[in-house]
Please model this.
Amino acid sequence: MKIIHCYLKKNRDKSVANRHPWVFSGAIHKIVDEDGAGAGAEVRVLTYEGKFLARGFYSPDSQIRCRLLRWQDKPIDRAFLGKKIRQAVALRADFMRQGDTAWRVINSEGDGLPGLVVDRYADVLVVQIMTAGMEQRKEMICEILENELSPAVIYEKSDGIIRSEEGLAAHAAALKGELPREGVEISENGLRYMVDIAGGQKTGFYLDQRDNRALIAGLARGKRVLNCFSYSGGFTLSALKGGAERVISVDSSRSALKLAQRNCELNGFTCAEDDFVVTDVFQYLRDVESSFDLIILDPPALAKHKRDVESAARAYKDVNLHALKLLQGGGLLLSCSCSRHVSPDLFQKILFSAASDAGKTVRILAERAHAPDHPIDIYHPESRYLHAFLLQVVES
Ligand code: SAH
Model:
């Protein structure tokens, strides 16, 4: 087998020795690729002196030059990948709620498989390949998934920033079977949702918010709810199930709101046409005159890159400020950030500043993150991206 050797600079081996799964170009002393193995090949990462540290896949076009999977000097072959995938599948079997039919099966670094995401929607698997290493092993991975999970359909939906930084073009196609034209129906927290895999956002649904949707279901009884950035109605349906008096859903995507409306009907909830508002949330929060008891803010990642953090902080502050202004004593705000460059600490500071400018007394009732089917490798805190705070406005 062709293999690449990557020698690190002196004193730059600590993070790999600590099982961090990335090697940045700046830490590399030299790459030795005698057989011309190239992008996606297996790489042995060594200290400056040549002592073995870890094995992974090589990405010559990315700043993250190596993504590591194995800290033993043994091959990353079918048996190893099969073991990792089986571990990931078994983990979900331990905690997924009975009746739920959608969850993340493989969460990239969080499952020891950098560059690979697999989501399950009923009997459809959606595979997202983000690195050259995984791209080369796509067929093998699909065979393993087929053996382990026997899906009716495997659909590849590979896109996103990581992939483009690898120099790989976006790619979407069925690898096994065909996606049903009408969408795929899933069940989550006792609710039915239609998922638009090919046309929708991400792999079709924001699975990471599952437990936060359940939280909202438990809080919504009798409340007037505003669900901002609602997408296909995840939090909307949860609030309705929890007995909300009325839920207004706001999103800039008409097709997302159409699906939200369809999902409401699918569950037998009666909603008015004007409960779904196609508009910009930033503007809506300034203009709306109704009052609410519970507001959900789940914007898209406002800081996609490190350089965006400052402008994202301003935008997060803006929406939170205007949402807090709409709440009276006892009112609740579930405020989320899914920007990996915004830390929980920074997000809390932004919320502090929004509360202060709104002139409100605000308490943190809970701090939340992704559902556990999105595990985080303890050595790779970068994969922790979803932070949510449940806030309460207190009458002063
Ligand atoms: N809470 C949802 C996921 C939200 S994803 C769930 O649980 O499924 C973010 C959503 O914000 C997307 O649907 C996107 O269309 C919408 N969006 C992005 N920018 C927006 C803006 N400025 N105003 C309104 N909606 C916006």
Q: What stands out?
A: The chain is about 30% helix and 30% strand. The mean pLDDT is 96.
